[in-house]
Amino acid sequence: MTPIFRRNAARAPQDRLVTLVRKPGCHLCDDAQIVVEKVCADLGVPWERKDITQDPQLHERYWEQIPVVLVDGEQHTFWRVNEDRLRKALTD
């Protein structure tokens, strides 16, 4: 019998991916990046930065919400990033 994997099944932090959707010159984006860098470094989670001005699809979807943090491709938060909440999302 093949095991059933649930969409939100627990995964090791290093198997997760955090994406920060941001734009140049955005002070909230700079603040969010500091939190993302810290949490991801502490937990060994890979992360990437995407520039909303370079991606029409991201711009269409998130232009009113930046910065936006995605965890495994799903929106986790926007505007302000709470360190404890992000850490919990990556370890639960």
**What is the H/E order?**
EHEHEEH
| CATH architectural arrangement | 3-Layer(aba) Sandwich
Strand residues, percent = 15-25%
Apparent shape: globular
Please give the radius of gyration in angstroms: 14 Å
Number of strands: 4
CATH superfamily: Glutaredoxin
The CATH class? Alpha Beta
Number of helices: 3
Biggest sheet record: 4 strands, mixed
The first-to-last residue Cα distance is 27 Å
Q: Please state how the strands of the largest beta sheet are arranged side by side.
A: 2-1-3-4
Question: What is the averaged pLDDT score?
Answer: 91
Q: Structural class from helices and strands? A: alpha+beta
The proportion of residues forming helix, as a percent range, comes to 25-40%
pLDDT < 50 stretches: 1-8
If you consult CATH, what is the topology?
Glutaredoxin
**Tally of separate domains:** 1
Organism: Streptomyces resistomycificus
Protein name: Glutaredoxin
Pfam families: Glrx-like
List the keywords.
92 residues; alpha+beta; Glutaredoxin; 4 strands; 21% strand
What does the model show?
This protein has 92 residues and is α+β, with helices and mostly antiparallel strands. The chain has a single domain (13-82), classed as 3-Layer(aba) Sandwich (Glutaredoxin), CATH 3.40.30.10. Helices cover 36% and strands 21% of the residues. The protein contains three helices and four strands; from the N terminus they run E-H-E-H-E-E-H. The protein has helices spanning 27-43, 56-62, 83-91, and strands at residues 18-22, 47-51, 68-71, 74-78. It has a four-stranded mixed β-sheet, with helices on one face. Strand 3 (68-71) and strand 4 (74-78) form a beta hairpin. Helix 1 packs across helix 3. The longest helix has 17 residues, at 27-43. Residues 1-8 have low confidence and may be disordered.
